[in-house]
Amino acid sequence: MPPETFLFAAPATMTAAIVAAIFGLLIGSFLNVVVYRLPIMRQREFDNYIAHEAGKELPHQDRFNLMVPRSRCPHCGHQIGALENIPVISWLVLRGKCSQCKAPISPRYPVVEAVTGLLSAAVVWHFGSGWVGLAALAFTYLLVAMTLIDYDHKELPDELTFPLLWLGLLVNLDGAIVPLRDAVIGAMAGYLVLWSVYWLFKLVTGKEGMGYGDFKLLAALGAWLGWAMLPTIVILSSVVGAVVGIGLIVFRGRARDNPIPFGPYLAAAGMIALFYGIPLTRHAQGWLQA
To answer: How far is residue 155's CA from residue 159's CA, in Å, rounded to a whole number?
Structure first.
């Protein structure tokens, strides 16, 4: 099915976009928690599993999840209060420092909140505040979280890639974005494309060029946007990755053999394809036919 079959809701009003931006700021604050805690939760679970299999005492018996314990300053242990946790504003008021020990607070926190708010407004403005718009918001939030986790830890957790995949198929059950047939084929083809590239690269070089999480992420993008959008996504992610990689080597002196996670570029390509995939694909088809 050609990409022209994308079905989107009418654009929302400015009021809906502003509400979405405020909501996005709050979600961005929560995503900061997810990005920080989910890898720790996975490591603690793995440590407990290894200890259990070895018949040893579990090293992590305290509760640690996305809600418990309360957020604290990593330097002095000061518990973050509600007024210190207002997206963007609190960081500005505190001048980027802990209210107790004055240790610096990373500017990435307000940046993630602001970017998530802006993306939320753009999604609702473009796709409306109906079912498709809400689904696109979930798509956006999952990609933001995966981008940061992959950047930090070079992993794409199944706890995020699988929900994105299943949600994409659910959204397209009645063809909300693409027909279900296109979504199912997109999920299968997305996984197999990078799986094939992985094994071909490994056979030729003896090295692993990417992780299995990348296969699952492209499969999820295929489930959302359909098989016809996969070439556009792969090309976009490769171009973005090449530009960023060259920039890191030239301007920051990053070693050429230092691995760069591919997930953030797939996520960026997925967002671009969500907004502009149809016209980009049309242009590409026009160039090929010229």
So the answer is: 11
